[in-house]
Specification:
This protein has about 150 residues and is α+β, with helices and mostly antiparallel strands. It has 6 helices and 8 strands, in the order βααββαβββααββα. The strands form 2 sheets. It has a 5-stranded antiparallel beta sheet. The chain is elongated and about 45 Å long.
Length: about 150
């Protein structure tokens, strides 16, 4: 996705960015008063500014998935309340260790994450705090410089 702050997107583009269905986007728009207003309505199609949707996503509690781009491939990882720090409101990204092994660009997650039982059915998962994730990865999944 473009990083141009003037980039516009319809509900399909918003759904791709959020990692949800188009129908879920319409539910969020109707139920969440903090979701940005569309910049235009063309017939029945609402159009949003990408930068406004990305800013909304950075508010704690708005994301259920994060994007990660590795050489053109888009990966999605779940965002959950971290069980070991639920009382502190800690949100974490769950990254399967198999993905870390398969994607060289994800190796940094080993340094900032911890191996724990994120899911008793599939214990091979790594928790990475959402703060650490956001420090290294843009909302659209591209790596941040530095």
């Amino acid at each position: 996705m473009s990083r141009d702050p003037g980039h516009l997107m319809n509900a399909v583009g918003v759904a791709q960015l959020l990692g949800v269905s188009r129908q879920r986007v319409h539910q969020i728009v109707e139920a969440d008063a903090t979701f940005p207003d569309p910049v235009a309505v063309l017939g029945r199609t609402r159009v949003w500014q990408q930068s406004a949707v990305e800013a909304w996503m950075l508010v704690p509690g708005h994301r259920r998935v994060v994007n990660y781009r590795d050489k053109g491939e888009l990966l999605r990882f779940g965002v959950v309340q971290e069980p070991t720090r639920a009382d502190l409101g800690g949100m974490s990204v769950i990254v399967p260790t198999a993905d870390v092994a398969a994607h060289r660009s994800l190796r940094w997650t080993r340094d900032v994450g911890r191996l724990e039982l994120a899911d008793p059915i599939n214990p091979e998962q790594l928790y990475v705090s959402l703060g650490d994730w956001d420090a290294r990865v843009a909302v659209d999944g591209s790596p941040k410089p530095g």
